[in-house]
Specification:
The complex is a heterodimer of chains A (about 375) and B (about 80).
Chain A (H helix, E strand, L loop, with lengths): L1 H28 L10 H11 L13 H16 L6 E2 L3 H18 L3 H9 L5 H20 L8 E2 L2 H4 L1 H15 L18 H18 L3 H11 L3 H20 L16 H18 L3 H9 L3 H19 L8 E3 L2 E3 L5 H19 L10
Antiparallel strand pairs in A: 1-2, 3-4
Chain B lengths: L3 E7 L2 H14 L4 E4 L10 E5 L4 H11 L3 E8 L1
Antiparallel strand pairs in B: 1-3, 1-4, 2-3
The chains are: A mainly alpha (about 375), B alpha+beta (about 80).
């Protein structure tokens, strides 16, 4: 009986994690950048570049994985009669929070999902990001307990909930039918990509699995700390386990804090960047992956959060805020990291999140 | 140990936390849980209580202005 309960409680989420980890490994083997089979922040940044919203030539490609995740989640929600169009939960604040979640993630060089994938590749520099993410989650929980809320969402016409999935379909049409309108990296991470159909299907598979299981890194840590419930977190542990084992089998595991792909060893700013992303994710009610899933389920608020993230990605590269990876130049190892502007943006992000938080606390006890 | 419980769902996490504070203040048995998957695809929090407290909770939460999204009797 106990085994059956465990399978019922943890089976779907662990399976979703294993699927996501395996898909990440497959995408990397088929062309995606190392330790970046999936990265919601990086891929939304690439999409911003493909659309000309920033001009960083190395990170421009309309990533079909993002399209697949949203449409896969939508298909799963429709099949289960769980597609519910709703909106109205502080959309402007969500846009702003999403923008700074993205800046924090790009200072670190990855979203929470890529953070776990980096750890699964043996990238010890990601530990600083993990610790920062935990710290940010804890700050968010403190304010949740004080009553922070962006307010509830209300039912809206189905078409409203279908806006972001519709945009995703249009992006895919652009990629296939009018690629001349888009920017494509010829070198760097944006030039490393699996075949579009493989990326789309892998994204759809992950999107559907995440919708069914509610896979969410921020929610997992929130439940672990606040409720001592480890179900959601087990999904991300499954991703880490799958990626670690897969990399060991494929000979791609490199346990080290130097020369890691698309990573830097400026630990303080990795910590602070992910602290910003973690705090923001708690305020939004989910990590960047979860926002895509919710948007696929019909949440207009999550769609606004995603658009905020895309705007944040454009800002990060237009204003030189994103982290720079460590590199080897003429045989010399050069530590990358964050620019002064990036540091200022993270500091500003904390100030903005604090302001949003304080303005969304209950005015008097019991008032909801 | 799985058992039949009253599960109160909310539209926001803050409402779930407000419900916990209210029940603690009133001495009503229960605890916060992750909202069960069979209730919603959202990943928020819910209040789990003995089923016999349903009427009490419905009235007390309404009086306190804590908005609920539904009451369910589930084995959790």
């Amino acid at each position: 009986m106990r085994e059956k309960n465990w399978v019922r409680d943890y089976g779907p989420i662990v399976l979703a994690g294993l699927i996501t980890g395996a898909a990440a490994l497959a995408l990397t083997a088929l062309g995606n950048p190392k330790n970046m089979g999936f990265c919601i922040a990086c891929f939304e940044r690439d999409i911003a570049g493909a659309l000309g919203l920033h001009s960083a030539a190395k990170v421009q490609y309309l990533r079909p994985e993002i399209v697949g995740i949203v449409l896969g989640a939508m298909a799963a929600a429709l099949a289960a009669k769980e597609f519910r169009a709703k909106a109205g939960s502080s959309p402007a604040s969500r846009f702003l929070i999403g923008l700074f979640v993205m800046i924090g993630a790009l200072v670190f060089l990855g979203c929470p999902l890529r953070m776990v994938i980096r750890l699964g590749g043996g990238d010890l520099t990601a530990v600083a990001g993990l610790l920062g993410f935990l710290a940010g989650i804890l700050v968010g929980i403190v304010f949740l307990k004080k009553g922070f809320s962006l307010g509830r969402a209300y039912p809206v016409p189905a078409a409203e909930g279908a806006v972001l999935p519709g945009v995703m379909v249009l992006l895919m049409v652009l990629l296939l039918a009018a690629p001349g309108l888009l920017h494509f990296s010829e070198e760097g991470p944006g030039s490393q990509r699996a075949f579009w159909l493989v990326s789309l299907l892998a994204g759809a598979l992950v999107g559907a699995a995440a919708q069914r299981s509610r896979l969410c890194m921020a929610g997992g840590l929130r439940d672990a700390f606040l409720l001592r419930d480890f179900r959601l977190l087990s999904g991300f542990l499954a991703i880490w386990a799958a990626v670690t084992v897969g990399n060991l089998i494929l000979g791609n595991y490199n346990l080290s804090a130097v020369s890691q792909p698309i990573a830097h060893s400026q630990y303080l700013w990795s910590f602070l960047g992910m602290a910003l992303a973690g705090w923001g994710s708690i305020l939004l009610g989910g990590c960047p992956l979860r926002q895509l899933i919710l948007a696929g389920e019909g949440s207009g608020d999550a769609a606004v959060s995603v658009l905020g993230m895309v705007a944040g990605a454009a800002a990060a590269h237009n204003f030189g805020l994103a982290g720079n990876a460590d590199s080897v130049v003429d045989g010399t190892y050069q530590v990358g990291g964050t620019s002064t502007a990036g540091m200022a943006a993270v500091a500003l992000g904390f100030a903005v999140l604090l302001a949003v938080t304080l303005t969304h606390l209950p005015k008097k006890e019991g008032a909801r | 140990m799985r058992q039949l419980r009253l599960v109160v769902a909310f539209h926001t996490t803050s409402a779930a936390i407000a419900a916990e504070a209210l029940c603690r203040r009133l001495g009503l048995e229960g605890k916060l849980i992750s909202v069960p998957r069979q209730v919603t695809s959202d990943c928020g929090m819910a209040w789990s209580a003995p089923p016999e407290l349903r009427e009490t909770l419905e009235s007390r939460l309404a009086e306190a202005g804590v908005e609920t999204a539904g009451f369910y009797e589930l084995v959790v």
